């Protein structure tokens, strides 16, 4: 039987997104978690079933399937339509999550538009700051995406001790976000959509034993600074703060989201993209 901590690690860690592990076979990745390939595959299959169920739940909402049908996921090249449309995610643990909004989005498109050739690649890395995300630009260029969905900035807003400044200053976060977008465009024009960092449940995060031992904390006001900056940029931005508001949208640490919270962010992304189509 797989212990809960290992299951949580597999859920939120995505070793295949790390540059030095790209292409590693499943048995090697499983060993990083102390699992054999069969046990690792069993966990992944379980997460896949949950993500598919979350997608099916969304499709049962009135009008939601129509919104998925309107998503602008058709690639056009110089010579007309291309074979596949490639969607890439950049982010941190909220996106790296095997039950994330991005994973649910991929299942939504597969269920609702099985005849469309749309590929989803998740490059999110748990714990990443915007500074570290800049190192992913070569990998992003290699992927040649048609659409980038970027949700990052929560780790920048960490406080490593009471009264300490944020891990990355607000000014540096804004500079890094601009560089992510602008340097990606230099590698080839790509449509770019931001998601604001999801909210935190401050009391729950403050009470979480692992955060308390590490001295780590978050403040909603710091995340709001990044969110408001993104909403002022010219690119489309999805405000996830409007989607995540209930207690059951958070896990016990107050920072990571339950599958219900992830599902609501997926719904917000679909509405925004369909409305902008």
Q: Give the structural class.
A: alpha/beta
Q: Please trace the helix and strand order, writing H or E for each element.
A: HHHHEEEHHEHHEHEHHHEH
Q: What's the main sheet like?
A: 5 strands, parallel
Look at the structure and give the mean pLDDT.
Answer: 93
For the largest sheet, list the strands in their spatial order.
4-3-5-6-7
How would you sum up the global shape? globular
Percentage of residues in helical conformation: 40-55%
Q: pLDDT below 50 for ≥5 consecutive residues: which ranges?
A: none
Number of strands: 7
Q: For the CA atoms, what is the radius of gyration?
A: 18 Å
Number of helices: 13
Strand content: 5-15%
Kindly, what is the distance between the CA atoms of the first and last residues, rounded to a whole number of angstroms?
Answer: 46 Å
Can you tell me about this structure?
- By secondary structure, this protein is α/β, with parallel strands linked by helices.
- The protein has 13 helices and seven strands.
- It has helices spanning 4-12, 26-32, 37-59, 64-69, 93-96, 101-112, 130-133, 137-143, 170-186, 202-207, 209-214, 220-231, 259-276, and strands spanning 76-77, 80-81, 85-91, 118-122, 147-151, 191-195, 236-238.
- The model has no long low-confidence stretch (mean pLDDT 93).
Please write out the topology.
Layout: H1 4-12, H2 26-32, H3 37-59, H4 64-69, E1 76-77, E2 80-81, E3 85-91, H5 93-96, H6 101-112, E4 118-122, H7 130-133, H8 137-143, E5 147-151, H9 170-186, E6 191-195, H10 202-207, H11 209-214, H12 220-231, E7 236-238, H13 259-276
Parallel strand pairs: 3-4, 3-5, 5-6, 6-7
Antiparallel strand pairs: 1-2
